[in-house]
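This part of the workshop introduces the protein records we will be handling. The question running through the whole workshop is how a given chain folds. To make this concrete, we reproduce a full record directly below:
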Amino acid sequence: MRGSRNKALVRAYFDLWNTGDEAAAEKLLTPDFADHAHPEVRGLDAFKASLRKTREAFPDFSVEVDVVTAEGDYVTALGMTRRTVQGEPKVAEVLWFFRIRNKRIAEWKTGVIALEK
């Protein structure tokens, strides 16, 4: 049961990125959320600012998730990010690692697997 809930939380997190819905962050993330890919993003305010900057810089930014697995308080997701900026890769294959605490996402780490040239 917890695994299904945690996978649903992670899918909702990616929906948040696809819609740019800052209000959803308060329901999904712990107040001290930590983004280890971007160490300066700690806490809800920093996360919302990061989401806003991403949506402004890449209006067509999107996340597509292929696989989500959960074990205990940890969730792993594999998918792609897409963005369009002239001269930069449009696609990155990414592996995300999440930790859930008290029914919210507490932290995430990422590993970029490959970029489209």
Q: What stands out?
A: The chain has one domain: 2-115. Residues 2-115 form a domain with the Nuclear Transport Factor 2; Chain: A, fold (CATH 3.10.450.50). The chain has a mean pLDDT of 90.
